[in-house]
Amino acid sequence: MRKKTLTFILLFAFVFIWASMPKHYTKGKKANDIDSIGLKTDSVPRDTFVGNRLNTTVDSALTAGPDTTLMDSLELAIYHHNKAIDDSLALDSINRKRKNGIDSPVEYEAEDSLTYEGATGLAHLYGNSSVKYQDMDLKSDKIYMNLDSSLVHATGSKDTTGNVFGTPVFVMGSDTYESDTMAFNFKTKKGLISGVYTQQDEGFLTSEISKRNDKGEMFIKHGKYTTCDHPHPDFYLALSRGKVRPGKDAVFGPAYLVVADVPLPFAVPYGFFPFTKSYSSGLIMPTYGDETERGFYLRDGGYYFAISDKMDLKVLGEIYTKGSWGLSAASNYRKRYRYSGSFFASYQNTINGEKNMPDYMKQTSFKIQWSHRQDAKANPFRTISASVNFATSSYEKNNLTSMYNPQSYAQTTRTSSVSMTNTFSSIGLTLSSTMNLSQNMKDSTISMTLPDLNISVSRFYPFKRKKAAGKEKWYEKISMSYTGQLSNSINTKEDKLLHSSLTRDWRNGMRHSIPISGNFTLFGYLNINPSLNFTDRMYTNKVKKSWDEVRQTEVNDTIDGFYNIYDWTMSVSASTKLYGFFIPSKKIFGDKIQAIRHVFTPQVSFNYAPDFSSSRYGYYDSYQRTDAEGNVTLVEYSPYSGGLYGVPGKGKTGSISMDISNNIEMKIKSDADTTGFKKISIIDELGASMSYNMATDIRPWSDLSTRLRLKLTKSYTLNLNAVFATYAYELDEKGNPRLSEHTTLYSQGKFGRFQGISQNLSYTLDNTKVGNFIKWLKGEKVEKNDKNKRNRDDLDDEDEEDDFNRETNEDDTMQKGQHGARKENAGKAETDDDGYMKFSMPWSLSFGYGITMRENTSGDFDYDKMRYPYSFSQTLNVSGNVRISDGWNISFSSGYDFENHKISMTTASLGRDLHCFNMSCSVVLAPYTSYNFSFRCNAATLTDALKYDKRSSYSNAVQWY
Questions:
Q1: String of DSSP letters for 309-335
Q2: Omega before 530 within 30 of 0, i.e. cis
Q3: How far is Cα 56 from Cα 58, in angstroms, rounded to an integer?
Q4: At 723, is the secondary structure helix, strand, or coil?
């Protein structure tokens, strides 16, 4: 049995071996044939080639394989079985290598040395090393990297003094981490970091130990969060634990505040910090405080809405424990190359006192501000602008912000305007519509014009030929233009504005003006300018006046209808210029002065207007007045005197006006000018004017007006204007002084009576000007300010102007002087020639002095000199600024009223930059006392959380100084 079994096995093996051989093998082996054993032997190298992707050239016979068309079914089955085994082995080799390898190339370098252990796959990098993999970049002095497991361990090194340098800096995408030691897996993107330091938005985060997951989130333990960029921060929040999502937010558990390494008893159980840099909405933290009249309050808290990239909205509220509350909304909008603006609205419900008590008072007030600006590139032919500043008279009194803003609190006048202009350049036509509003905050009076339509046609020459040939004709120099205005206005109290009648309370009308003029030259030197001006007024009502003898009062009766009133005037003027030159003697004056030029400009004009008070025009009327004693008088009036554009004047006009002007300049040699000469203005203008009315017999001569303009420096021009009365005073029958109707002072051999003068002087003194003056006294060279730099400063000042351009009580010169001390190159230490640090303390001091001298007709008359005494009114304003260091800034502003003998508005402010915090204090010392103290964190992330504000109010009347 065993022999049979052994024989069967041997026979089966022989048959199996014979079947596996190709038929041509039995016929004889060829050089190009490959047997199955050779094929199986080559399967392993082919597997190695596929796995390593080597750039090796393989013989075409090996890659092509045996010809399966020559195999029978049994041979083909055995071939496919062996090939399947070879492919599976190759695939397993590829998967095994990809599972433990690295997907992308790893770039690494080291300045000192680099070692690699082939057995363990560990690379050692020494000296300013770096490893880059995909978007990850690690830099450190020492790096250990395992290529098989993708693990990286980085540490710093110690120098001979024991200081650590070259600590790991890891950058992944937009996140940067600085640490003491770091272990990181490039493939899983997870890591363990010790002593991490990273910046998130405006804040800096540190921790003793932290873990990073594959999403980039960090889990920290014993961390610190601060907005101070110093290595040793001035303050921080000590975090027991937290979770940080880079670029999004940070959530932390119990935390407390530490300032100057001193823990403070301010702790929170948990917190949240947003890090998003995108434009987003969010809560606005309120401020708290107390006020005597309205109680404790929470104010300036609300929500910020990020509506779009072109518009936002901030809604704030305030509430008081005694019932007062307020709500405000502010919005900014901007569309590039089109328009921009801002809007603010506020409503306050103020309750003072207790209910059912005599001092109980309830007030409602509101404020609206709107500023709109159109970009010049939007539409060159249409412009829309708005500057609205409207508030009820009680708003600023009930607003706490105004108490430490004296300019806002003391503002007596508010103006608002909204305008739209369309220009048709092809025909020279301009259409404009305006709404104007003026408020008097003292008596709550409102002057409003709605609408104010204007139509104007630019100057044109109606007789000018389209195709000129030869010389210009005289009539072609005649020009004319047109201006039309339609207005509707009212003067009333703010509480009566919405209850006013459009026909009875509002004044409306239309005015047309057509000026016609020409410019001709006679004899080549004399300029002749004739002109004719026609003005037409249209009203919808007139006022008929009469006298009620019973009640002894004047009765006004308004009659509606259409009424047209016109007038016209004509004038002609003649002027020329006379030049005179004086060349001084070089023996006396030297060759410095080249010449002195005198320009004399005389001008004579004649003006004529008929008497429009004549009965044929119907512009004036009269009524008979009988008083209680039976005396009868005739009262003349104009039914149109209350019209929006007035009424033509009474009396015939035929006046001759005379004016002279003088200008004196000197030409000297100058090496600073490229031409070698320079002009100096000695008298920029010295002029006088006077007129004589031939159509009247009573005081036909006008007063003498004089003017003087001197250019003292390049930046300062002195202007003086004075008026001298022509007619003398005389005594009437009762011995009272009166102005004579015929007797002039000149006929008495006297010059005109001085009427008064008004002049304002201001000057700003700073440390630079004083230093240059001292250098000039010592004979040293004074460095001139850079012109471009001065222009840049001017542009900066223009940018700092109020966008609303509102009328305020601020003095521009005083305000510039108050904030004028700016330290240049702040933070850079300058040294002198000896190597010592230069002492620099920028300061500025501005003085403003105004004086007005006028004839006081209400004073006691001097019968000896036959004149009234003079009265003087003076004002003095002083403001200054001093910066004792880069972080300290002190400014003040005050003044003196000489008439009332009191100190005017006096304010002082102190600012201190504490690097991470900002402290400011402002006080008002006169005419009332108030103060405002603020201590805030500079970073926007913490400015609403870390702050302390203390303000005073007018109602508490605390004498704290």
A1: TTEEEEEEEEEETTS-EEEEEEEEEEE
A2: no
A3: 6
A4: strand
Q: How far is CA 443 from CA 407, 430, 489, in A?
A: 18, 37, 19
Residues in the chain: 961
Answer yes or no: is pLDDT of 812 > 50: no
Nearest to 260 by CA among 914, 724, 950, 900: 914
Please give the torsion angle defined by the CA atoms of residues 533, 536, 542 and 548, in that order, rounded to the nearest 10 degrees: 20
* CA–CA dist 725, 751 (Å, integer): 9
Q: Is the dihedral of CA 521, 523, 525, 528 positive or negative?
A: negative
Cα separations in angstroms, 213 against 173, 190, 193, 246, 352: 15, 5, 11, 12, 59
Q: Which of 327, 274, 278 is nearest to 306 (CA)?
A: 278
Give CA–CA dist 404/909, Å, rounded. Answer: 10
Residues 841-897 pLDDT 10s: 889 999 888 888 888 888 888 888 888 998 888 889 999 999 887 788 899 899 888
Rounded Cα distance, 19 and 427, in Å:
110
Could you give the CA distance from residue 256 to residue 238 in angstroms, rounded to a whole number? 5
d(CA 731, CA 273): 86
Pairing type for strands 339-352 and 717-725 reads: unpaired
Whether the model clears a pTM of 0.70, i.e. scores above it, the answer is no
pLDDT of residue 804: 40
Give the whole-angstrom CA distance, residue 522 versus residue 514: 26
- Count the alpha carbons within 13 Å of 850 in the hemisphere toward its beta carbon: 14
CA distance 262 to 292: 35
Give φ, ψ of 788 to 5 degrees. Answer: -65, -40
Under 8 Å between Cβ of 150 and 101: no
DSSP H or E stretch at residue 744: strand 737-744
Contact 500, 492 (CB under 8 A): yes
Residue 680: both structure tokens together: 């100096």
Report the alpha-carbon distance of residue 793 to residue 311 in Å, rounded: 31
Average pLDDT for residues 907-918, to the nearest whole number? Answer: 86
What is the C-alpha separation between 782 and 771, in angstroms, rounded? 9
Amino acid code (one letter) for 33: D
The residues pairing with 933 across neighbouring beta strands, listed in sequence order, are 921, 950
925: tokens are 């010392």
Cβ-based burial of 947 (10 A; exposed 0-12, middle 13-18, buried ≥19)? middle
- Report the chain's C-alpha Rg in angstroms: 47
Quickly state the pLDDT bin for 917 (edges 50, 70, 90). Answer: confident
pLDDT tens per residue, range 263-302? 888 888 888 777 766 777 888 888 877 777 788 888 888 9
User: Could you give the dihedral angle defined by the CA atoms of residues 351, 352, 356 and 359, in that order, rounded to the nearest 10 degrees?
Assistant: -150
Structure tokens at 630: 């039976």
- Token output for 743: 């007797």
Sign of the alpha-carbon torsion through 83, 84, 85, 89: positive
Q: Which residues pair with 276 in a beta bridge?
A: none
Q: Which two tokens stand for residue 854?
A: 């006028």
CA proximity to 772, closest of 761, 783, 762, 756 = 783
Q: What are phi and psi of 254, to 5 degrees?
A: -55, 135
Complete DSSP assignment for 655-708: EEEEEEEEEEEEEEE-SSSTTSEEEEEEEEEEEEEEEEETT-SSS-BPPEEEEE
* pLDDT band per the 50, 70, 90 thresholds, residue 257: confident
| Gap between the Cα atoms of 336 and 960, Å rounded | 50
Residue in the block written with tokens 């000026």: 515
Helix pair 73-100, 2-20: axis angle to 10 deg:
80
Tell which residue, 273, 241, 243, has the closest CA to residue 255: 241
Q: Residue 879 is inside which H or E element, if any?
A: strand 870-882
Contact 923, 890 (CB under 8 A): no
- Cα separation, 334 vs 312, in Å, equals 10
